[in-house]
Amino acid sequence: MSGTPMDLDHPGSAPSNGTTTSLNITRTLGGGVNPTTELTQVIDAFRPAKLFRREDVKDGTRPCVLSLDFDDPGELCMTSESDETIQIYNVKEGRHDKSLLSRKYGVKLARFTHWSSSIVYASTKQNDAIRYLATHDNSFIRYFEGHEGTVTSLAMHPGSDNFISCGVDGTVRLWNIGSKQWAGLLYLNTPYLAAWDPSGNVFAVGSPSSGCVLLYDYRNYTKAPFAIFDIVESCRAVDSTHLLQGWTKLEFSNDGKSILLGTRGNGHYLLDAFDGKLRAYLRKPEGGTRRPAVGEGNASAPSDPSQAESSGECCFTPDGRYVMSGAKNNVLIWDTLGTVSETKVLEPAHVLLDKREAAVLAFNPRYNFFATADQDLVFWTPDPHA
């Protein structure tokens, strides 16, 4: 694999000469690859560019990454980790910025609000409150209390700081970030995943045990869902194992035409966002990662990666054309415009080589840049020499 060797960084440490190890993204992409070049031109040229490795914790094991998120400008990358810390990284300079501790409550599902200096995240101990934190001084702004079971999903509204949470208590709660009291409440069967459509007018809830994805009008969410997609009916011909379990991710494409339902099995489901029919079964040749699916792991977020849920190992690219996924080895890319077999199976169009498992994956909203993680965090950029 040609290109620039990957830089290695240990967050929290500094070189003996006092300088900061960094990867300037402008320099990296400057050799004929602009950070905002049309993605189709560079989709197969991504290479690992920077690796961040945390120091060992007290028991001799390294923490695992539970979630990945980027802020709206795409300049910051944030992880929540099993050692009850939040790590924030500068994307353009490829460096670790700060560590925030949440020892008392634990942390998972950390999400930026539309202000880069404030975040929300779910607790892993003490209680099941969602916490609103100012990152510049690590101070709590507000607690969102109501869930009586582990929170399984946090989804920020695309145009405002309203958000949705789901939990194992069988509730979906809608929140306005300016109030600690929930603004809306739905009781559903295993509502473990939620996602907003790009307009912010519709939200979807994934219920694995009922085998359904439910679509709601945000302005009339107290009414019945306006659409119910039966995953069992639509997808049983391609994968009968993960119709009622093992769901890892729910996401709309940015063009609003498709829904991605990730699973920890041998493939992901690509659904039509209007009628719920299966557009393609995105086959993973070597199967899924070892992490348990949402709602099926250990709520206390242990250091053992095989027991810790992630926030999802797959996502759409910002142009809506490609789906990327981590796997036991390598990163898989499917072209949603590719040729689907008669059985609706779509094979990966590209495989980005990497021996590390990618149990969590997120794509930058502004730049041709994505990150993967399990215990190490890896930044990926297009290699101009690929």
Automatic annotation (TrEMBL):
It is found in: Nucleus. It holds the Pfam family WD40. The keyword Transmembrane helix does not apply. GO terms for molecular function: chromatin binding. WD repeats lie at residues 144-177. Residues 14-27, 300-310 have a biased composition (Polar residues). Belongs to the WD repeat SWD2 family. This is Uncharacterized protein. It comes from Thyridium curvatum.
